[in-house]
Design brief:
Length: 150
């Protein structure tokens, strides 16, 4: 499971002309699910994400987590995070999980985040063509991969 976590002042995701999810200060999480991912990847990643100290404290130092700031979270599925560009110029998405595997894990990820945060997590729609708008705060962008726990 691969994520791009962006600290945002605001973010939204739209499908066509309709806003599907919208947040103020918090995190925009782009998530790509790989064929080998499991519920254990969901558990590990969610626990890491909610404790990431990427928000400024009163001294301007990144010491606070999303729990400390009571910020909002927007999750958007993005299979292209598993693009392989090793050969040629056309990316291959062979490592991305098929919908029958990815959708339950995507839903589990959202449910787990909601449980850990104690509030609603806003989302896009899995598999839809979406437009994402954000104001990256910092900018702060963190990459995490549950298959590479560095």
């Amino acid at each position: 499971m691969r994520t791009v976590i962006q600290r945002v002042s605001e973010a939204s995701v739209s499908i066509g002309d309709q806003i599907s999810g919208q947040i103020g200060r918090g995190m925009l999480i782009l998530i790509g699910i790989e064929a080998c991912d499991t519920v254990q990847d969901v558990e590990w990643l969610c626990a890491k994400i909610i404790h990431l100290r990427i928000f400024n404290d009163e001294k301007g130092v990144m010491n606070n987590s999303i729990l400390d700031t009571k910020g909002e979270v927007l999750v958007v599925s993005q299979f292209t995070l598993h693009a392989s560009t090793k050969k040629g110029n056309r990316p291959s998405y062979i490592r991305a999980a098929r919908p029958e595997t990815a959708i339950p894990l995507y839903n589990s990820f959202i449910i787990k985040l909601e449980q850990l945060l104690g509030k609603k997590v806003f989302t896009g729609k899995f598999g839809a063509m979406m437009s994402v708008n954000l104001v990256n705060d910092g900018p702060v962008t963190i990459l995490m991969d549950s298959q590479n726990k560095e």
